Amino acid sequence: MSSIKLLKNFIAITRHKSVAAASREIGLTAAAAGQQLQHLEHEIDVELFDRTKRSLALNGNGRALVEPIQEIIATYESLGALVLNQNSVALLF
After folding, report:
1. What is the pLDDT along the chain (93 residues), one digit of tens a residue?
2. Which residues sit opposite 58 in a β-bridge?
3. Which domain holds residue 73?
4. How many structural domains comprise the chain?
5. CATH number at residue 54
6. Fewer CB atoms near the end CB (10 Å): N or C, the chain?
7. What are phi and psi of 59, to 5 degrees?
8. How many angstroms separate the CA atoms of 35 and 32, rounded?
9. Three-state DSSP class for 28?
């Protein structure tokens, strides 16, 4: 699974404060979005949310990672634009 997808899922969950609402934004089932979140937490060996049966709250670890993860996503997306721009310039010559 693409790590960037895991990061985007995490940011969507933090924005919506809900796995179900985030899953609708990113086009997954709530179960799949929850599994992606667990996969990310397992990969980095850190819990990002405090969980109860009815709620999900970003914990200190999660809060510390929101901005760096947003920067990673922005950089990743700008790389795609950079490659497209370079290909367009190459076609002009």
Report:
1. 679 999 999 999 999 999 999 999 999 999 999 999 999 999 999 999 999 888 899 999 999 999 999 999 999 999 877 777 666 655 444
2. 49
3. 3-92
4. 1
5. 1.10.10.10
6. C
7. -95, -175
8. 5
9. coil
